[in-house]
């Protein structure tokens, strides 16, 4: 697999490039955000450090997500939960804290590719994932061309995720936006509505749960 390593640490890059090559990957390294953005169309996977000299890595990730669905794993020393959540919300497929083992990184890359976490497309106000079509304007959902009758609140939850396909929305963020309340009663309601979406569409992976972070549209 063609991998773009965006890392300004020369010592780490020097160790990581041959290690990934031993796992069968062809690695190109960029030490700056502008070089990484220029090389984005040449790769099948991106490994992104957040501490870049010319631009914060999260901003590079957001810019990348506007034009590309290439899988991205963030590699960084930032381990606070809020930093992890920001990375996932910005469109990262996974997050690995430094220091890490190359074998774990390779395994996570393989898992991201298997999951196909970004098979999503949005045209105007329509999100399409597999055979599931979500029309945000008409509030209609179809699966394999057949309409699915969601409740108003079930559709609201799905729409929050469909507005930014592949981006993680935090649990409290959804509760605050739709219920204006993050208390236990609203939290239980969210669980019920997500279960309803999965059951009625017959696509249990349509809403993907990321433990301790939130939800995003999955693989259907």
Automatic annotation (TrEMBL):
<dbReference type="GO" id="GO:0005829">
    <property type="term" value="C:cytosol"/>
</dbReference>
<keyword id="KW-0597">Phosphoprotein</keyword>
<keyword id="KW-0805">Transcription regulation</keyword>
<dbReference type="InterPro" id="IPR011006">
    <property type="entry name" value="CheY-like_superfamily"/>
</dbReference>
<keyword id="KW-0238">DNA-binding</keyword>
<dbReference type="GO" id="GO:0006355">
    <property type="term" value="P:regulation of DNA-templated transcription"/>
</dbReference>
<protein>
    <recommendedName>
        <fullName>Sensory transduction protein RegX3</fullName>
    </recommendedName>
</protein>
<dbReference type="GO" id="GO:0032993">
    <property type="term" value="C:protein-DNA complex"/>
</dbReference>
<dbReference type="InterPro" id="IPR036388">
    <property type="entry name" value="WH-like_DNA-bd_sf"/>
</dbReference>
<dbReference type="GO" id="GO:0000976">
    <property type="term" value="F:transcription cis-regulatory region binding"/>
</dbReference>
<keyword id="KW-0804">Transcription</keyword>
<dbReference type="Pfam" id="PF00072">
    <property type="entry name" value="Response_reg"/>
</dbReference>
<feature type="domain" description="Response regulatory">
    <location>
        <begin position="2"/>
        <end position="113"/>
    </location>
</feature>
<dbReference type="InterPro" id="IPR001867">
    <property type="entry name" value="OmpR/PhoB-type_DNA-bd"/>
</dbReference>
<dbReference type="GO" id="GO:0000156">
    <property type="term" value="F:phosphorelay response regulator activity"/>
</dbReference>
<dbReference type="Pfam" id="PF00486">
    <property type="entry name" value="Trans_reg_C"/>
</dbReference>
<feature type="DNA-binding region" description="OmpR/PhoB-type">
    <location>
        <begin position="124"/>
        <end position="219"/>
    </location>
</feature>
<feature type="modified residue" description="4-aspartylphosphate">
    <location>
        <position position="49"/>
    </location>
</feature>
<dbReference type="InterPro" id="IPR001789">
    <property type="entry name" value="Sig_transdc_resp-reg_receiver"/>
</dbReference>
<feature type="domain" description="OmpR/PhoB-type">
    <location>
        <begin position="124"/>
        <end position="219"/>
    </location>
</feature>
<dbReference type="InterPro" id="IPR039420">
    <property type="entry name" value="WalR-like"/>
</dbReference>
């Amino acid at each position: 697999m063609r991998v773009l390593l965006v890392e300004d640490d020369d010592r780490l890059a020097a160790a990581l490039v041959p290690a990934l090559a031993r796992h069968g990957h062809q690695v190109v390294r960029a030490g700056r955000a502008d070089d990484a953005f220029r090389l984005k169309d040449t790769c099948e996977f991106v490994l992104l450090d957040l501490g870049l000299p010319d631009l914060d890595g999260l901003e590079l990730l957001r810019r990348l997500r506007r034009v590309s669905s290439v899988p991205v794993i963030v590699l960084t020393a930032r381990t606070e939960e809020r930093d992890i959540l920001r990375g996932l919300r910005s469109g990262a497929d996974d997050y690995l804290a430094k220091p890490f083992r190359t074998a774990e990184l390779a395994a996570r890359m393989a898992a991201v590719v298997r999951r196909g976490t970004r098979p999503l497309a949005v045209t105007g106000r329509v999100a399409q994932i597999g055979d599931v079509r979500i029309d945000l304007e008409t509030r209609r959902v179809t699966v394999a061309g057949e309409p699915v009758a969601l409740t108003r609140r079930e559709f609201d939850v799905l729409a929050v995720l469909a507005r930014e396909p592949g981006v993680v929305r935090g649990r409290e963020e959804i509760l605050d936006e739709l219920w204006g309340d993050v208390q236990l009663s609203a939290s239980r309601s969210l669980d019920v509505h997500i279960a309803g979406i999965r059951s009625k569409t017959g696509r249990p992976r349509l809403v993907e749960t990321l433990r301790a972070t939130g939800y995003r549209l999955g693989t259907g």
